[in-house]
């Protein structure tokens, strides 16, 4: 009888141990799921403003292509650098736009060629590209949390802070930035309705 009691007691203990193991496993899986969800939510929150800053091409009434850049967020984005290409020009051209206010869309047309960094050295650029199609290849910008992002027509990537794409390499940089600031009317800035929503 004592043997049966020991067997029953051992069986109950084994079942309790298995049950405890299952509960512990369930708790670990639940904690892991919660952590994964928390990380996804944090990543979504981090990308929230950046996902509302976009670029795309449009065509004017004369059939000339130009680039559009828009900030649909309720906060400004700063340090905006655009990387452009014209149809008949090789290479890409850098244009430091500066800050895009909240809820604002801007048109970047060939008439802005004189504002590219390269125009400081290539005095004939503006004439050559005046009637060429322009496309924004990609852009980089800093969001309201000081994260730096790179966007092209398909992807949005966070960039390491120490590897920003553009340095103040021109000896005429301050003069260049002043020219851009004085020429912002060229970009035909418009207020975006339904601000604060992803494109």
Give your account of this protein's structure.
This protein is α+β, with helices and mostly antiparallel strands. It folds into 2 domains: 1-47; 51-191, no CATH class. The protein is 31% helix and 29% strand. The chain has 3 helices and 9 strands. The protein has helices spanning 2-47, 125-129, 173-182; strands at residues 53-59, 65-71, 77-86, 93-100, 104-108, 134-142, 148-152, 156-159, 190-191. A 5-stranded antiparallel β-sheet has the order 4-3-6-7-8. A 4-stranded antiparallel β-sheet has the order 1-2-5-9, with no helix packed on it. Strand 6 and strand 7 (148-152) form a beta hairpin. It is rod-shaped. The model is unreliable at 163-171 (pLDDT under 50).
Short description:
The chain is of the alpha+beta class. The protein has helices spanning 2-47, 125-129, 173-182, and strands at residues 53-59, 65-71, 77-86, 93-100, 104-108, 134-142, 148-152, 156-159, 190-191.
Question: Helices and strands in order, then pairings?
Answer:
Blueprint: H1 2-47, E1 53-59, E2 65-71, E3 77-86, E4 93-100, E5 104-108, H2 125-129, E6 134-142, E7 148-152, E8 156-159, H3 173-182, E9 190-191
Antiparallel strand pairs: 1-2, 2-5, 3-4, 3-6, 5-9, 6-7, 7-8
Keywords: Membrane, Transmembrane, Transmembrane helix
Transmembrane segments: 6-26
